[in-house]
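Whiteboard transcription, Tuesday session. T.W. wrote the C-alpha cells on the left side:
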C-alpha cells in the first residue's frame, strides 16, 4: 500500500514539474495592425487597452482597436 502511494506522489510531483516547465516556455505575442509584433507579458484591460512592459522597464499602452490579434507562442531556446 505504501509503495503504491509513494509511486502516486512521485508521479504527481513529476507531472506538476513538467507542466510548470512547459508553461514557462510560452510568452504573450501581440500583433498590431501596423505590422509590429511585441513579444512580452501583457496586462489586459478588457475591451479597452493592453499594457506591455519591456525588459528595460519601458511601458507601452495600446488601444484594442490597434491590435490585430494576441497569441501565446513557444519561446525559442538559445543556441549554445
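and on the right, the sequence the group agreed on:
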Amino acid at each position: 500500500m505504501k509503495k503504491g502511494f509513494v509511486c502516486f506522489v512521485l508521479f504527481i510531483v513529476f507531472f506538476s514539474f513538467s507542466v510548470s516547465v512547459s508553461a514557462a516556455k510560452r510568452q504573450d505575442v501581440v500583433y498590431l495592425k501596423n505590422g509590429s509584433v511585441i513579444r512580452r507579458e501583457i496586462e489586459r484591460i478588457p475591451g479597452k487597452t493592453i499594457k506591455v512592459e519591456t525588459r528595460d522597464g519601458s511601458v507601452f499602452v495600446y488601444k484594442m482597436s490597434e491590435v490585430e490579434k494576441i497569441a501565446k507562442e513557444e519561446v525559442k531556446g538559445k543556441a549554445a
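Someone added at the bottom: The domain at 2-73 is CATH 2.30.30.100 (SH3 type barrels.).
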